[in-house]
Amino acid sequence: MAVCIAVIAKENYPLYIRSTPTENELRFHYMVHTSLDVVDEKISAMGKALVDQRELYLGLLYPTEDYKLTFWARH
Amino acid sequence: MSPTQWDLPVELCCRPMAFVTLTGLDVVYNAVHRAVWDAFCANRRADRVPISFKVLPGDHEYPKCRPKRTSYEWYIPKGILKTGWMNKHLNLVPALVVVFYELDWDEPQWKEKQSECATRVEIVRQSLQGRNTKVAVVLIQKKTPLPPGEDVIASERAAALCNACELSGKSLFVLPHTDHLVGYIIRLENAFYEHAQTYYYTEIRRVKSHKEFLNKTTHQLLFVRHQFKIAFFSELKQDTQNALKNYRTAYNLVHELRAHETNILEIKTMAGFINYKICRLCFQHNTPLDAIAQFRKHIDLCKKKIGSAELSFEHAAWMSKQFQAFGDLFDEAIKLGLTAIQTQNPGFYYQQAAYYAQERKQLAKSLCNHEASVMYPNPDPLETQTGVLDFYGQRSWRQGILSFDLSDPEKEKVGVLAIQLKERNVAHSEIIITLLSNAVAQFKKYKCPRMKSHLMVQMGEEYYYAKDYTKALKLLDYVMCDYRSEGWWTLLTSILTTALKCSYLMAQLKDYITYSLELLGRASTLKDDQKSRIEKNLINVLMNESPDPEPDCDIFAGKTAQKLWADRISLAGSNIFTIGVQDFVPFVQCKAKFHAPSFHVDVPVEFDIYLKADCPHPIRFSKLCVSFNNQEYNQFCVIEEASKANEVLENPTQGKMCLVPGKTRKLLFKFVAKTEDVGKKIEITSVDLALGNETGRCVVLNWQGGGGDAASSQEALQAARSFKRRPKLPDNEVHWDSIIIQASTMIISRVPNISVHLQHEPPALTNEMYCLVVTVQSHEKTQIRDVKLTAGLKPGQDANLTQKTHVTLHGTELCDESYPALLTDIPVGDLHPGEQLEKMLYVRCGTVGSRMFLVYVSYLINTTAEEKEIVCKCHKDETVTIETVFPFDVAVKFVSTKFEHLERVYADIPFLLMTDLLSASPWALTVVSSELQLAPSMTTVDQLESQVDNVVLQTGESASECFCLRCPSLGNVEGGVATGHYIISWKRTSAMENIPVIRTVITLPHVIVENIPLHVNADLPSFGRVRESLPVKYHLQNKTDFVQDVEISVEPSDAFMFSGLKQIRLRILPGTEQEMLYNFYPLMAGYQQLPSLNINLLRFPNFTNQLLRRFIPTSIFVKPQGRLMDDTSIAAA
């Protein structure tokens, strides 16, 4: 079950973050924020290929102890 | 830090090596023995076999071997692994005991020595009774042994010694104490290593052999124990592949054990040990993914095995240690060359370790909150007789009890209490911070800046809990800007809230104010009631009072803080805090905007300061000042509103400086710029807004430039992308987002009110004094002063133009190179309203092409701005592009005296130079005079008078001249002979009398001169008449230094009869002339061919009649016979 959804601007600030109210909201904010390290790295590694491709699913970023993070990029 | 209960034992973490003891060596008093020992243990590099050596006395007592069990039927194990077992096999029970003995083969008292050696071996054997430990003998010999087989005595005695000591031949070694000690030692230890491996092999076999006696109901623990031992012996044997295999089996077996609250700690402890071994070996085998997979499996299996709820902090501590140990293994593997990646690096494991350490702390806090009166139990249930546990992971008060039922609940309770009370003394924060800082170092290495910041926040918070507020603030303050710059307001607010607590607890005024300012601002996600509370506290602080305590602070620390705040009040000193806002997001926003990008100096400069407060309640500021790059303007842009300290929140809607939350306040400023600043930029360098006053405490918010703070750029970006329509506002209000900061303006000069006209007749002619008439007329209402004219070539054009353009005000003299291209600041006096002045400007352009000329008129005028008298300097400029052209084209040609075109001239023979002057000027030109300056090589035949004096040429008209010249013989000159110069003196016809005449010098072309042997010229009248005698005289001149034979003949013509020599041969002396006289008698009228003269030079066959025809006429016009009567009759008719 998805517990948190975030939409991030390309300058890396959050446009929208909602998580299930029972959980610690701050923890999800930190989790999304720290995952941007991996997103940054993936996007810079993919570079131009990313712009050309339509498939922008960055896949599973990394597993934490309790959650899994996946990411989509778009133009 | 001293090792704690949770640290893995040293013997588990070390690399197991075969244990070999050396006896019979006196390393203290015997130098030879010392050298042997040093050779064994010094400089053990990686290429030496893995053995751990120890020197022991020959009679050392090794741990006793328990009698062999014949049956396991009634045996019930009391635990999984004894705490001493690993150490025993690493450091106490050797695989091999080596007996060193000094004995040479030729020892005279051989028998005695042999028996002493046998005794020593026997003593060792006694001590090792029941063990499979090997024994070897090394004979230290003084002599180098002979090759095997050659020394018969040696062979015999060796066999005898083996026999006496009950040794196989493979266990007897000889160590000659000679030069190559290290070489012998290496060979020795390799042999020892083989013996040790055999020993461990038999140990493995021995343990395996127990298996068949075990049953699954009572001996479950033994399955694990034996598997662990096999694996451990395999490691000692350096068989890591089998070790790994057996550890894996052991790991699976440990999880097959029936788990219960009473034994779960033992199971987890052993699972943790075995897991550690597996992961370690996987990293060693360079299969890190296997290590990671094993570790994940381990955690998944054990995560839920919490055990006793009362001691659940133990589980968290154990979990934390598992992650930390794996992180250490991972890090060690990286140091040995493994490559880690951003998403899989030791940092994640340290982070998770920290997470469990935090959980441990939380659990300990809730489970160990016994009252102070609760005493630590006596006797201590955690004490054992030996001081250590018998088995790993068991409880000290019920060691070896396997029952799942708690036989003595009271004892259990006391034991739990003892553990809880001990846990209370653990420095949890210290553990957490160490782990977090390990993680930070890793994430820094693997390019995870945000993860690093997050961990630093956690560190800061942990320091806060540990009451080290200084360190907490330092860390939090360090990372705040990262969250601010990326606009993660929720996270920033959370960090600020902790930071505010820290600054409150330390009574750090400036920090407290700064964090409050931001927590009240728009970046803060706090609820309004929280903001209200903070705002109230801030006002209190500004009124020199103590703020209310922050919620959820430690009670004791809160009390200390209150004292600190009270001390702050009594302390005098600097109560003004200036806070630069460009690096954070305060609760007031500021934007400065000049009304225009430029202002004329005679109108006041106007700008607005927009302010908007985001705090929950209206707030009154005491002072606003604006600073400029020219500080003289600062004084005009200050608003100060005297108010008492306690009025900050009162009468909120009155006064300019009271801001109502959400409403934009516009403050207009104007000032008159200084005339010196014309052409300069006026820039707002800062805006200062003061809150509070000097009697209490005062905060000055300082915006650099025209406002804006850390969030402004992101907001501007967001606003630009937003599709949201802004709601309509009343006319006098503006949308904050729509205000664009304009922090600088230009001061430009007053608009001039004069006219500048230029009058001239383009194009300019090369080198003439071209006249430009400048007319300046004042349209100002008052007198203008100090009018100055700058005129000439506009700067910034081709540099060559500057060299070839000269300007003067005096047209009567021709200007030369010394004149400038631009005349600057020529004073022309004052002008009354409406008055005009005229100035003539003469420009001399030395080259053709177009040039831009500038005429710049400046003046001073007294005027007023904002009722202030100012002197303005105004200026007006005009530019004009003027083309320069050649005034005329000059064509020159050489012709013969017969006006025939000449390719070359003949030495000493006159020829004509014709010049043709074609006017190219659109204006009439007067050729004042012309002059031909001949080169020394040329002479003139007649007078060189100008034939074109005062000729006026209109456009396209031309004036020609003709000069008869002669070139004396010069011999053969390569490239021709210079002719000279043609100089034309001219001026525009329209130019005034006093304008100087321009001399244009044309260099005439070179001409090729050729010598001829004979020159012939003819004297004859210009015309003849029918039947009237026509005398013709030919002059033949010998131009050579030779006597010439000349053949002359005259061919008859139909039109003439003639008398004279028809054919003759004569000689002409050098340099002399021969005349030939003929009388021609014309018979017909009209243009008639003369009887042709043919000359043949015997010496010069090239001299042709064709050449001759160039010099003498070939025909003549013959008039008909005159009839005087007829003329009159015509006149009469």
UniProtKB/TrEMBL annotation, chain A:
GO BP annotations listed: endoplasmic reticulum to Golgi vesicle-mediated transport
Entry's family note: Belongs to the TRAPP small subunits family. Sedlin subfamily.
Sections of the chain in a coiled coil: none
Record-level GO cellular component terms: perinuclear region of cytoplasm
InterPro entries: Longin-like_dom_sf (IPR011012), Sedlin (IPR006722)
Natural source organism: Mandrillus leucophaeus
Protein name: Trafficking protein particle complex subunit 2L
Subcellular locations according to the entry: Cytoplasm, Perinuclear region
SUPFAM superfamilies, alphabetized: SNARE-like
Tagged with keyword Transport: yes
One Pfam family hit: Sedlin_N
Principal cellular location given in the protein's record: cytoplasm
Automatic annotation (TrEMBL), chain B:
Domain (Trafficking protein particle complex subunit) ranges: 263-521
Similarity annotation: Belongs to the TRAPPC11 family.
General function of this protein: Involved in endoplasmic reticulum to Golgi apparatus trafficking at a very early stage.
Keyword list, A-Z: ER-Golgi transport, Golgi apparatus, Transport
InterPro entries: TPC11 (IPR021773), TRAPPC11_C (IPR025876)
Organism annotation: Mandrillus leucophaeus
The name this protein goes by in its record: Trafficking protein particle complex subunit 11
Subcellular location as annotated: Golgi apparatus, cis-Golgi network
A biological process from GO: Golgi organization
Domain Trafficking protein particle complex subunit 11 C-terminal: 1037-1095
A Gene Ontology term for the protein's cellular component: TRAPP complex
